[in-house]
Backbone:
């Protein structure tokens, strides 16, 4: 019944549940509600329709320990309230993640701590509501005045308007007053200065007029202005806040903690910050390494692709040093921590990232750049109008009225409303297509790029091997190999299992030898599946990264060759980027032949291989020095500094935590067509923003002379302002009319058909 | 003029009622998931009573 994830239910889940958050981690991250119940927030990027909601909520509700469950489709989150104990048994919160995973959705732990952002948003929405209420009521009274109410009635209406406007201005206008005051205090000026000035002056003048039984009052103008600007401000805030919280709340690659073994042998799960050098850690298969360490006992294979971009797993044994962030694949390890979390490899990357941030920080948003010229110009204009009318008439009151009208009519509706509306609409469209945007300026920057640099492993390629010589292998050998492979979560074993489909289980004793392969004792003899050295007892060369051998009692039965596969849509995306007139290149930490091969397949001519994280940053920096604006697309920890150094950056949702934090865009689905899609949408948004600015300038060209000449009655001002705002918003909404594009239609399909990259 | 004495307070009261209703809805979290809400309308449920 679910439209979203056909067939995923049948996928074989490795018994450890690779990629599921650990129980202790979930327990640690859950919020205690008191009375024995706790709340857990999980991020489920795959939900996108009503059926998904019903499926997940229904499945979770069936569990006895679940009290309440609610799926939030807007932020793609599930919040679960559960009892700590049911019938004397401690609840395992990991079961929730497993239930969701069994229904074919990825579940990640959601990081709490975005409440503060939400509070500001709520305040803003409340302010919008109050301003809207005041604006409608005052407008009602104003219409009566405009349609001919006079004398006592007009005064009464003006007084009522004044009474409604005053609290509304104080309550709803405080955002602008505070910001304007802050700017003025430091001798700067920003958009909020003309707004605050216009609102205050128009209210003051209107009150003065009302007391003097004057004909015109601008209460409606000042409140409506505030209303429109607050809508813009709220959208802008949503733009910055919502998507960011969704991104930071996705899967966390750097683990929150690890099991520490004390000197007396007792075990304790501790947050990663509290792990000291010298402590002994137990790392189960399927867990991430929390801090740099040395192997004390055990052997395993490590997936280091997130750290250095190399796609093949590396075997490790006793005495070897391993870095934080790598994934332990096959066997349990005992580690001695050699560095605290803050001195780990991860921390070093953080340092590099901070150093690389400079280029990004210098970027000023379009609205800010415009405001820098706009507000002095407006103030000067209003001042000159005042002087001019003083010179002509010498009437302070009238000169003041006219210059206030100028201030009102020039108030930056287009700046305050146009940019956020366009960006929110564009971000909404991107979100529909599976791309999340961190803030509006990212879209502005994306529209400017001329070069796209890709990381290889995990970005252009899935980072998972695929069987390439399936047709050369006898079906019988394939079935045996698949049966063996079902017992391992080594990437090669999983790839083989995927290629062979469902396999009949093998009778006999099966065990996995970490760092080597799988062995089965059956009636026919000893089957071995793994590296050539292991399977054929030392015969032949050990090229284990792309080859696995099946043997019976040391005699080779079949040899399987594997290759990393390209991400869905990689070829089309690169072609599309070339069509858009962009340069492309690959920056990879992987070995040269592998990178060259990927580049050849995709038609990317320029590539650099075997780069360190610092090397990637330098490559980005040299492109910037060459006058290019670079979009960096990458996923690993080793890409994070380069993601920061580039003009703008993008990462898949499966990327490392740090990578996702560093990126401006995160695409949720597997296909790489998200990259050209995001670029095109951003360019469209940029065009619309420029159009809106042009509209605003046209409006000012017409309206300002009317205001300066003193013809801007409150009626004219209200009509002009509202019309300009409505036109600007209508123009922004054209972006939505683009219709459902290819990536939008395809994205969920791809996400469902491919085993969503749960390990990374 | 006399009718205004009734009409204006009534208009303001009704407007205020709308404002209060909106603020209440905001506070009770009805704007947290607009996308989900539009789907939930279509959900008939399976006829079984909900737990908890």
Residues:
């Amino acid at each position: 019944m679910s439209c979203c994830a056909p067939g995923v239910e049948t996928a074989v889940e490795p018994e450890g549940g690779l990629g599921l958050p650990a129980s202790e981690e979930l327990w640690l991250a859950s919020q205690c509600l008191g009375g024995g119940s706790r709340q857990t927030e999980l991020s489920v990027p795959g939900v996108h329709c009503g059926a998904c909601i019903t499926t997940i909520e229904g499945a979770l509700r069936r569990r006895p320990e679940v009290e309440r469950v609610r799926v939030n489709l807007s932020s793609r989150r599930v919040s679960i309230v559960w009892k700590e104990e049911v019938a004397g048994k401690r609840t395992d919160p990991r079961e929730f993640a497993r239930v969701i995973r069994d229904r074919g959705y990825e579940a990640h732990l959601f990081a709490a701590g975005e409440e503060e952002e939400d509070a500001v948003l709520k305040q803003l929405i409340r302010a919008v509501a109050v301003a809207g209420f005041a604006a409608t009521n005052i407008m009602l009274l104003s219409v009566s005045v405009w349609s001919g109410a006079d004398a006592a009635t007009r005064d009464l209406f003006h007084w009522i308007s004044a009474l409604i406007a005053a609290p509304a201005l104080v309550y709803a206008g405080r955002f602008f007053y505070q910001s304007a005051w802050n700017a003025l205090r430091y001798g700067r000026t920003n958009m909020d200065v003309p707004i605050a000035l216009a609102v205050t002056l128009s209210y003051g003048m209107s009150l003065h007029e009302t007391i003097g039984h004057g004909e015109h009052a601008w209460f409606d103008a000042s409140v409506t202005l505030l209303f429109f600007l607050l809508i813009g401000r709220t959208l802008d805030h949503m733009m910055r806040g919502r998507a960011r919280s969704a991104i930071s709340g996705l899967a966390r690659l750097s683990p929150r903690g690890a099991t520490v073994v004390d000197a007396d042998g007792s075990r304790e799960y501790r947050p990663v910050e509290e792990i000291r050098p010298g402590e002994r850690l137990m790392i189960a298969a399927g867990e991430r390494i929390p801090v740099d360490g040395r192997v004390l006992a055990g052997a395993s294979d490590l997936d280091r692709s997130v750290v250095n971009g190399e796609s093949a797993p590396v075997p490790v044994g006793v005495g070897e040093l391993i870095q934080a962030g790598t994934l332990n694949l096959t066997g349990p390890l005992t580690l001695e921590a050699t560095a605290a979390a803050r001195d780990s490899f991860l921390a070093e990357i953080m340092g590099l990232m901070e150093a690389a941030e400079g280029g990004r920080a210098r970027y000023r948003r379009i609205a800010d750049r415009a405001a820098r010229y706009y507000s002095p110009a407006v103030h000067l204009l209003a001042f000159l109008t005042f002087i001019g009318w003083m010179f002509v008439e010498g009437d302070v009151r009238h000169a003041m009225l006219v210059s206030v009208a100028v201030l009102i009519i020039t108030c930056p509706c287009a700046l305050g409303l146009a940019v956020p509306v366009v960006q929110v609409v564009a971000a909404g469209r991107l979100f529909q297509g599976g791309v999340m945007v961190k803030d509006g300026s990212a879209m502005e920057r994306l529209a400017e790029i001329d070069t796209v640099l890709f990381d290889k492993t995990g970005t252009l390629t899935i980072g998972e091997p695929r069987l390439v010589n399936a047709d050369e292998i006898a079906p019988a050998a394939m079935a045996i190999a698949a049966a063996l492979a079902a017992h391992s979560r080594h990437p090669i074993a999983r790839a083989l299992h995927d290629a062979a489909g469902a396999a009949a289980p093998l009778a006999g004793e099966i065990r996995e030898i970490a760092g080597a392969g799988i062995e089965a004792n059956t009636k026919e003899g000893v089957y071995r599946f793994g590296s050539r050295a292991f399977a054929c007892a030392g015969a032949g060369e050990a090229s284990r990264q792309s080859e696995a051998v099946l043997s019976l009692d040391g005699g080779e039965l079949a040899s399987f060759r594997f290759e990393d596969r390209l991400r869905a849509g990689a070829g089309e995306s690169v072609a599309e980027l070339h069509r858009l007139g962009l340069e492309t290149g690959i920056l990879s930490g992987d070995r040269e032949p592998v990178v060259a091969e990927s580049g050849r397949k995709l038609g990317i001519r320029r590539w650099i291989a075997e780069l360190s994280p610092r090397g990637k940053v330098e490559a980005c920096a040299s492109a910037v020095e060459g006058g290019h604006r670079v979009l960096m697309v990458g996923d690993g920890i080793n890409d994070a500094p380069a993601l920061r150094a580039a003009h703008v950056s993008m990462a898949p949702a499966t990327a490392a935590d740090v990578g996702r934090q560093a990126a401006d865009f995160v695409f949720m689905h597997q296909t790489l067509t998200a990259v050209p899609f995001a670029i095109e949408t951003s360019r469209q948004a940029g065009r619309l923003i420029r159009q809106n600015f042009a509209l605003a300038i046209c409006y000012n060209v017409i309206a300002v002379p009317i205001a300066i000449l003193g013809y801007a009655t409150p009626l004219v001002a209200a009509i002009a302002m509202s019309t300009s705002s409505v036109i600007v918003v209508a123009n922004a909404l054209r972006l939505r009319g683009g219709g459902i594009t290819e990536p939008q239609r395809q994205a969920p399909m791809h996400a469902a058909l491919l085993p969503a990259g749960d390990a990374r | 003029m006399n009718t205004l004495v009734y009409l204006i307070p009534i208009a303001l009261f009704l407007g205020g009622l709308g404002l209060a209703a909106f603020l209440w809805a905001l506070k009770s979290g009805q704007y947290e998931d607009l996308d989900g809400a539009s789907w939930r309308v279509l959900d008939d449920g399976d006829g079984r009573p909900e737990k908890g």
Q: What stands out?
A: Chain B has a mean pLDDT of 79. Helices of chain B lie at 2-27, 34-40. Chain B touches chain A through 26 residues (CB under 8 Å).
